[in-house]
Amino acid sequence: MIKLTGYIDVPADRLAAVSEALPKHIALTRAEAGCLSFEVTPDASHTGRFQVSELFVDRTAFDAHQSRTKMSDWAKTTDGIPRTYQIEDLTE
User: Fold this and answer.
1) Is 72 helix (H, G, I), strand (E, B) or coil?
2) Rounded CA gap, 65 and 29, in Å?
3) Alpha helices, DSSP H only, in 1-92?
4) How many domains does the chain have?
5) How crowded is residue 60: how many other Cβ atoms within 10 Å of its Cβ?
6) What are the residues whose beta carbons fall under 8 Å from the beta carbon of 9, sequence distance 6 or more?
7) What is the extent of the structural domain holding 16?
8) N- to C-terminal Cα separation, the chain
9) CA 91, CA 21: separation in Å to the nearest integer?
10) If I label 15, which of 23, 76, 82, 88 is the partner at 20 to 30 A Cα–Cα?
């Protein structure tokens, strides 16, 4: 399994657009083959920060997710926004 955890820090001037695009991004990701869980939630203690937690069955499913999102509306909406992620291979 591949696990991604971390956060995305959304600037105040882009918060409305990101918040509007987020439900579709979540729905599309959860519908992907191999997605076990996908959560993106606002951080109560840090305005504009969203905590991200993803779990995919294997590297192939995770890589497919990464490829799909690079071409998505989500990628356009969040282009240039800082992300801090850690990716773990839980099968090693």
Assistant:
1) coil
2) 7
3) 15-30, 59-70, 73-77
4) 1
5) 12
6) 46, 48, 49, 81, 82, 83, 84
7) 2-89
8) 9
9) 32
10) 88
Give me the CATH number covering residue 14: 3.30.70.100
Any idea of the CA torsion for 46, 48, 49, 54, to the nearest 10 degrees? 150
From first to last of its 92 residues, the chain has per-residue pLDDT tens of 999 999 999 999 999 999 999 999 999 999 999 999 999 999 999 999 999 999 999 999 999 999 999 999 999 999 999 999 999 999 86
Which tokens belong to 64? 């497919």
Q: Which residue has the tokens 């240039």?
A: 80
Q: Which amino acid is at 90?
A: L
The span from the CA of 54 to the CA of 9, in Å, is 17
